[in-house]
Every structure is written in C-alpha cells, then in structure tokens.
Amino acid sequence: MTGPVSGYDPIPEIEKLGYTGREAAFLYLVGMHSGYFLRSQFLQLVKREDGALVQRFLAKAVSAGHVVPIEYAAGRHIYHLKSKLVYRLLGQEDSQNRRLKGDREIKTRLMQIDYLIDHFGETFLETAEDKVRFFHEKLKLNTGLLPQAAYRNHGQPCYFPDRFPVSVTEKPCERFPHVTFVFLDDGLRSLSAFVHWLKQYTPLLNALQFAEVVYVSDSSRNFAGAEREFLCRFPRNATSKEFPMGLEHFLSWLRVRSGLDRKEGRFSSDEMRIAREGDEIYTDLEMKALLAAWKMGSTNEARIRQRFQPQLRQITFRSDLLSYTYPVWSVKYRHSVQ
C-alpha cells in the first residue's frame, strides 16, 4: 500500500478530526479502496491484539458519524466509512465507496482490504484516474487498450470499472515496469466473471512487457480452472512479435528443422508438429538466417537466449488464497445500527 501520490497528503487532515496517525492511515486505506472494513482488519494493520485500542477507535469513529456499524450477527459488525467529510479530505467526495452495497460486493471490498494489508509497502494505483495517468500518460498506451465500460447516461468511458487493485514495481536497472493486476473472487460458482474480466484486460496485457494476473479468493476451488483459462490466452512461454509461441518453441523448431533437413534419425509426432508450426511462423529473413547459422554451428541456444530473452514479454498467472474468515451474509446486512 502506498500513501497519496499527489503533493497533497490527506492523512494529517484526517488526524485533525481526532484520530491518531495509525487510525488516520487506516481510514485513508479504507476510503480509497473499499469503504468497508472489519474490526480484525484494523488490528491486522496496526499489529495489535483485540482490546481497548480498537474499541476506542471504533467508538470514536461511530460517535463522530464517520463510520456506520452494520450488524450481521449478535454483537458482530461490519463497518462502513460513510462520512462525506472524510471522503472530501481524501479528494474523493463523490466516491462510490460511500454508498451502501449488496452482500457480495461488501465481501469483495473486505477481501480487497485484506489483500492490500497483506501487500503493505507495494505501490498501488489507487484510483481510476491514477491508472489512466500511468498507462496512458506515462507508458504512452492508447486509452482504447484500457478496460472500460460506458456510463449509462452520458456514454463517457469509465476506465477500470472493476476497481480491483493494480500495483506497479519499477526498478532502475529495468526499462519496463512490472504491473500486477488483481482479480477478486468472492465465492463464484463459475469462471464466467473471470473470463469476462480477462477479455477486458487482454488488450492491455498484450501491450505490456511484464505483467502478472493474481487470482485472489478465500477458496481454492476455482484456482486450477482460472489458470487454464489464463493459459489459453497467455501460454507459459514468454512471447514477442518474433516468437508468438515463445522462445522455447523457436529453439525446438531449430533443432527439429535442422535434423529433418539433414535427414537425421526419426522424429516423434510432437516434433513433426513443431516443424510444421515453425515452418508457417518463422518465415522472415532473420529467422531463416538463424536457422542457417544454427546448421553451420555459428550460433547456439545460449547465444540466441542472450540475444532475445530481454525482449520477450512475460505475462504470468498466480493464485492467492486469503486465509481469513468473512461474515455469513444475511438480510441484516441491509440495516445500519443507529
């Protein structure tokens, strides 16, 4: 998690409302990313056991009208950061996080807070505006590549409508940033939502050099299926324009094609398939020159890897199991405690 990306820092302003620095930082996290939180999540962030510290924070926030408790079981609550004043201090006065959500959406937002706390210290693009600024203005990507939906009334694009976390790692020694996109599964029975999300993100993923998709859930039920769906679109081998099936496929083609041309031994059905695929793909002069050099022994696997590996795109998949307990949904979610 990161703090404010602009020159303005709202955390000291939230402190002026009577909160400690840790409490203000937690409200910043909730307001920017979720709108909802659990008592346990505050304790997780400040690394304290349950007790007077969290009780004072919650009593203060509820008494001030900044937070509204929502009862889901006897004496157990979800908390909704609803204060327009707090969101105004965050520069998010019209944030959708202020509005009451349905049960599944609330769970998704609670999961998002847990993911962010688990990855505290990473650099997240906190708003849709931050994401557009990074991909369009900094990386110079066309906005048509960004996931988007149209507003019902005005027809204007709403970029990154899922509001899921996006983090960026930039290293001085590397030309391209590493971008991580998170998909949150709140208990889906099928993978249709993930497939739709992946379809929305595919143009952007294809435009990046290094990217990772993280499938996050509190159940591992869909992990294997989600990975299969991902690999259908992004095979494990890193790819590029020159090597659409990956560098490993090209190296295999060099070995098989040179052996076939020399009529060396027998080849398996898989090797023959690679030969046919490669003959259709590797047709430009550079690929043919590499094949000729391979046959003559003037190049080898190590030299080809050294030459092309840094240019290859790496689009990967990872699953992340959240080992937390979330409230059992009930109609009581609809009723705020006054």
- What overall form do the CA principal axes indicate? elongated
Give the biggest beta sheet: 5 strands, mixed
Report the end-to-end length measured between terminal Cα atoms: 32 Å
Would you tell me the structural class of the helices and strands? alpha+beta
| Beta-strand residue percentage | 15-25%
Average pLDDT: 89
Spatial strand order of the main sheet? 4-7-8-9-10
Question: pLDDT under 50 segments (min length 5)?
Answer: none
Count the beta strands. 10
Percent of residues in helices comes to: 40-55%
- How many helical elements? 13
> Over all CA atoms, what is the radius of gyration?
25 Å
Helix-strand topology string:
HHEHHEEHHEHEEEEHEHHHHHE
Write the layout of secondary structure elements.
Blueprint: H1 11-15, H2 21-33, E1 36-37, H3 39-46, H4 52-63, E2 67-73, E3 76-81, H5 84-89, H6 103-118, E4 123-124, H7 128-138, E5 148-150, E6 157-159, E7 166-169, E8 178-185, H8 192-207, E9 210-217, H9 223-233, H10 247-261, H11 269-281, H12 285-296, H13 301-308, E10 314-321
Parallel strand pairs: 8-9, 9-10
Antiparallel strand pairs: 1-3, 2-3, 4-7, 5-6, 7-8
Helix pairs in contact: 8-9, 10-11, 10-12
